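Good day; I would like, with your permission, to put a structural problem before you. The record follows directly beneath this note:
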Amino acid sequence: MLLHFLRLTVCIVLARAAVIVPGATWTDTSGNVIQAHGAGILKVGSTYYWFGEDKSHNSALFKAVSCYTSSDLVSWTRQNDALTPIAGTSISSNNIVERPKVVFNKANSEYVMWFHSDTSNYGAAQVGVATAKSPCGPYTYKSSFSPLGAQSRDMSLYQDDDAAQTVYLLYASDNNQNFKISKLDSNYYNVVSQTSVLSGSTLEAPGIVKRNGVYYLIASHTSGWDPNPNKFFTASSLAGPWSSQSDIAPQAVRTYFSQNAFDLPLSSFAIYMGDRWRPSLLGSSRYIWYPLSWNTGVPQIVAADVWSVNLSSGTYTAATGTTYEAESGTITGSATVASDSSFSGGKAVGYLGKGGSVTINNVQGIGAAQWVSLYYANGDSTWRNTTVSVNGGASVLVDQPNTGGGHVILSVPVKLNLRSGSNSITFSANQNTYAADLDKIVVYTAS
C-alpha cells in the first residue's frame, strides 16, 4: 500500500510539473514524434482532440489526418487516423489535405470535419468535408467543392455561441487576395451565404477567438512556407466591419518564426497554436504554442520558453529561469564578442563553429534533465545549427532557424542532463559549419 501511495504521489507530481516547450520535439505517450500540423482542436467532455496533418513522409501530399487525445494539453496519445487517402478521389495520396478542423453538430449527433482539399499544384483550391459518429472517426469522406463557386485555400472553422451553434468557414479566396467568412448550413455540410469579405487583405492561416462580445480574427499574411508577422482584426459582428490589422507579437520576430494554425480560448487567455514550418523536412516542423494574453486589452503572444496551463482555473504560468550571458564564457579559436544594442547586455559571441567555440561555466543544475533556451541571432536566409556539450560529454545538435536578418533574437530549446551544482556547457566545438551568434542561455528547472 505504501509503495502504491508513493507511485501515485510521483505520478501526481509529474503531472503537475508537465510543461509546454515551444519549438521542442514533442512526442506522444508512445514516444513517437507528434505529427499533427495545421492543427485543429476539439474538446469533448474533459478530453481534447488534436487533429492535424501527418507529415512523417516529409511531403506536402496527403498521408493522413491524425487524431491525438489529451486531458491536460501536454500529454498526447495517438489514436486511429481520422481520415486516410482514398484512391481515385480528391483525397488520394497524390493530392493535398491540409488544416483539418472538426466541429460537433448537436442536432445530428455527428462530428463534421472540413479541410483544405487541393491538387498537388494547389490548382483546385477547394474545401473537403467528412463526417463521423465519434471524434476520431474514422471519418467518411463526402466531397470536395468550391464554396459558393470561389476558391478556398488556407481555411478554418468557427462555431459561434448562438443558440443554433452556427458554424462559419474562414478562408483565403480569389488567389489568396480576399479573405472571406461564410455561413454553413444547419448540417455543416455546405456553405449557404457569404457573411463578410476583407478585400485585398492577403490573409491565410485563420482562427477566431470571441471575448466579451468581440470577435478577434487572427491570421498570417501570404509568404509561402516562410514566416511573417501574424495579425489580428476585431469586429462586434462576423459581418463586420473589421478593424485594421494589428500585431500579436513584435514584427521583427515574425511571430517567433511560426504561422497560426488554431487559437484555443480558455477562461482568462487563449493558446496561440502555430507551426514552425520546415519545408525541406516537413515532418520535423515544430509546434509553437504560446499563451495569448489580453492583459493589455488586445491579444498579445507571451513568449514563454517554458510554461504550464491550469485547466481548472483557465490560467497559465510562465516558468522562470537563470540567465547566463554568452560573452561571460570562455571564448576560444576564431570566436569573437559582437556588440549590438539588440543583444542582452549589448553583447553576444559570434563566429562560432569552424574553430570557434564558447564555454559557459558555473551553470547551476539540479541533477536532472533540464530545459535550456538558447537565445541567438541568425541573419542568414537558411537555418544554421550549433553543437552543445555538457561537462565535456557527447555533443547534441540544435537547429537554429533564421531570424529574419540583422540581430533579431529568437530562442530554441534543448534538454540537457545537468549534474547537481556547477556545470560547463560548450557551444560549437568541433563544428565545421558556422553557428548563429549566441546571445545568452536561460536554464529552467521546470520539466
